[in-house]
Amino acid sequence: MLTALVFAPTAVAVLLFALPRRTSPTVFRVVWVVMSAVELALVIGLWAGYDSAGGMQYEERARWIPSAGVGYHVGVDGLSLPLLALTGLLFLACAVYSLRENRRIREFAALFLFLETTCLGLFAALDLILFFVFFDLSIVAMYFVIAGWGHRQAARAALKFFLYTFIGSLALLLGFIGLYLAAEPHTFDMVELTEQNPLAGRSVYGALVLLAVVVGLAVKTPTVPFHTWLPPAHVEAPAAGSAILAGVLLKMGTYGFVRIAMPMLPEVWRRYALVLVVIGVVSVLHGALVALAQTDFKRMVAYTSVNHMGYIVLAVGAAAATADGSEQARSLAVTGAVTQMVSHGLLTGALFLLAGVLYERGRTYDMGAYSGLATVAPAFAAMTGIAAFASLGLPGFSGFIAEFQIFTGSLGPRPLATSLSVLGILLTAGLFLRALRQVFTGPLRLPDAPGTPRVFPEIRAHESAAVVPLLVLAVVLGVAPRFMLDVIEPASRSVLELLAR
Amino acid sequence: MTEMNENPLYLLPEVLLAASAVLGLLLGSWLPRARQWAVGLLAAVACVAGIVAAAVAAAEPARTAFGDAFTIDPVTSTSRIVVLGGTLLVLGVSFGPLRGDPRESEFYVLVQLAALGALMMAGAQDLLLIAAAYLLASIPAYTLAGFRKDGPGTEAALKFYVVGALLGVLMLTGITVLYAAGRGTAYPMLGEALRDAPEVLIATGAIGLLAGVLFKAGGVPAHFWVPDAVQGSSPPVAALLTTLPKIGALAALFRLGDAVFAGSPLPWPALIAVLAAASMTLGNLGAFFQQDVKRLLAYSTISQVGYLLMPVSVAGRSDLAQQALLYYLAAYTVTNLGAFSVVCALPRAHTLDDYRGLAKERPLLAASLVICLLGLVGTPPTSVFLGKLEAFSAAFDGGYAWLVVLAAVNTVASLFYYLRWIVPAVSRGGSSQPAEGNRAARVVAYAAAVVSLGLGIAGGPVLDVLTAPITR
């Protein structure tokens, strides 16, 4: 079941190439949307059959390369299930959004389907090498998306993205090899490694492995100081690519923290958690401050991603503090981190798709070139407003639930750091409000570079069909988050139990 | 025991290849020019038969043949299969361009002799046999490098020959010194004798020996011939020069480290580790801004030798070393030959810019190129990834963590120049690719890409085979 879920999109992608070259583009679009919808339905099916108290479920194992300690092992638990669902939903949104995409639609659809396999596979993987394979392939696929369908400077941005994240992935590989060699018998299996806790009592070795793993994941997340690849990659990527990059690919880093680093390296994680707290706070503040200075809408959203990811890093760092015994508070932090991953995926995905709508009409992301759009495109203005307010953490939206949990959970163990990061909320509120005022209020003004259309059409049906479900879900999670928290909480408690060893 | 094991059948793959080379030479003298392809076919049949024979021999327990001179163990068997398989691919890509060439049969014969030299190097367990194998692998290769008789080819052959002759003499000197130090040339005997031999003698001998073997492997510091020889010779020859001799040389180095120098006072592992580091780094630096695809690949092979030397350096210190080396060798051979096959398939494309628009003209060929190049980077799930994983693990296990970190950094750096080739190949527009091309080479490229992927995904059983112990 899980294997089919993971590999079906790639199979369909290969089938797309089997179709004759003259096939109408509509066929590709329809196949892409239908396949993404089927995937989402399958994930919902998984969720429906998931027992929230049952630990790891839907496990599948196969011998793959036994002599190298590598196996095919996938499974779902409360940490991965919400992210699988997010992946399914965002890919469907991107497929719907790209219904008007004309440039080499077959290759575009095939790449996205392949990318969906890598994302789903990564969140389901229970073997380090399997995880790494999907991690690397997602980079390759995203490279081609940015380089092939991006804007003017796409080649440079794509190269930067590839090189940075590839360095990260190799650091990760070194860490994995360190774990593998420490385990007895040598294995890459995550479940066994978690049980064995092979680096217990080996402080220097453990610290080096943790360093490699954390650097690898931090590049992908990205946190300060490894975040510089993110803004150019986002600005140059096509809208759907940005949405996936921010919505799903960034989560691979933070997911790695809770799935690999915390349970497998508990001792060193606890020892060095303060470093992560500091990195988290710096990311929060730096991301927000730099975002405040941007005039480019997409670049601003990209920097708010750094800010939002910073909260997650803060939470996973604070969860390790043992000084304060309140287990419930720390479990709250981990739950908040996972909720934040989902929430950020939904909202930033929506914001990037909306940025794509803006670009398609005005051919620029420069906020100074627009003014008063609310009068000509009220629905577009409303959606952007909702997404922005939700993203800054207004109560009633998913962002609030996530950030509230993170702050509540982290305040006890790390009061200073947490209070500093609350400032981040203030800054994001300021920057989003400023952007909304600039673009949507005031007298109507449109960019008048040669070649841009004179009118600013309202958001189209397929574009709103892509964005609205994301926003609706953000509201649902903000109002009634219980159904998701019920899934996450047992898993985050077990992460903490593992961490306390 | 010496009388017992002088059975030529133990060397069946080598015998088959030698016989087919001699027979091919005779056949070539009598066949009309239009039918010289039969010699190539004969060579291919000999390779296939050799692979079968090697596979059968691999199933039996390890043994030595002709005294202690030659050994048949997993290292030999794997090298045999990889060398012969690689020879098949080289024959495949040379079939088209050589069709009707006045010296067609000579080419096939030379290819077989070069492959035979590599086979002998891989199995040799005696310094004198190594010296003979060195000459057997080198002399046909010199001829092949200048086979086209044009300016660049002549330069390539001359440079190749001069460097080879110099390092060959050094190697013979080294062997002489080691003979003096160990009072023997067979590895088991040497391994014992070198434990308490004077260190200066061992060091001098080992360095001389290394010079020759590294020349065949194309590793730093004996790498100077590689870029010029590869760029100057025709693409099929370039493919051969950068793969087949390496396999024999690296297998020989592994054996030397495991059986001869393991107990000696010489810091052999550290020496190889430093050479590995230098090779991967200098190869990468050289490749960075190359415009000519063959030259780029030439530098890339130098850096690959660096990664291949990682498991060699920990021979005998890590259980993973042997399987890592053998698996990486197989993966490297097929992937590198795949990349060269793409070059062979497009004889008019010399620079990176000539590949612009390849994805539109020949999508499958472009896909093969992307798979092979990303494979050489070490992107999963291609086979080189698994090879690198094994090699990294082995080096880590053997205590060379710094080398692993350096290799990881180099891998990232290598991504840069491979991307410089991938980007034009998959981007739009550009020049109109010449529609004509080498069809056989295209098929070889597809096959190599598929095998490279398949070997990576289904690497489990292969690795299992490679773990059996070697003879000492």
Describe the protein's architecture and organization.
The complex is a heterodimer of chains A (501) and B (472). Helices cover 73% and strands 3% of the residues of chain A. The relative contact order of chain A is 0.10. In chain A, strand 1 and strand 2 (70-76) form a beta hairpin. Chain A has one domain (2-499). Chain A has 501 residues and is mainly alpha-helical. Chain B has a domain at 277-472. Chain B is built from 19 helices and two strands. The model of chain B has no long low-confidence stretch (mean pLDDT 90). In chain B, helix 13 packs antiparallel against helix 16. Chain B is 74% helix and 1% strand. Chain B starts with 11 loop residues before the first helix and ends in a 7-residue tail after the last helix. Chain B is mainly alpha-helical. Chain B: It comes from Streptomyces ureilyticus.
Identify the biggest protein-protein contact and residues per side: A-B, 31 and 31 residues
Structural class label of chain B: mainly alpha
Strand tally of chain A is 2
Report the mean per-residue pLDDT of chain B as an integer: 90
Provide a quick synopsis of the model:
In chain A, 73% of the residues lie in helices and 3% in strands. Chain A has 501 residues and is mainly alpha-helical.
Task: Furnish the topology, listing elements before pairings.
The complex is a heterodimer of chains A (501) and B (472).
Chain A: H1 2-18, H2 25-48, E1 57-65, E2 70-76, H3 80-97, H4 105-124, H5 128-149, H6 154-182, H7 190-196, H8 203-220, H9 230-236, H10 239-264, H11 266-292, H12 297-318, H13 327-362, H14 373-376, H15 378-391, H16 398-411, H17 415-440, H18 461-479, H19 482-499
Chain B: H1 12-30, H2 37-59, E1 63-65, E2 70-72, H3 74-98, H4 104-123, H5 127-145, H6 151-182, H7 187-193, H8 199-217, H9 225-232, H10 235-260, H11 268-287, H12 293-313, H13 321-345, H14 358-361, H15 363-377, H16 383-397, H17 401-426, H18 439-457, H19 459-465
Antiparallel strand pairs in B: 1-2
Helix pairs in contact in B: 1-2, 1-4, 2-3, 2-4, 3-4, 3-10, 3-13, 3-18, 4-5, 4-10, 5-6, 5-10, 6-7, 6-8, 6-9, 8-10, 9-10, 9-12, 10-12, 10-13, 11-12, 11-17, 12-13, 12-16, 12-17, 13-15, 13-16, 13-18, 15-17, 15-18, 16-17, 16-18
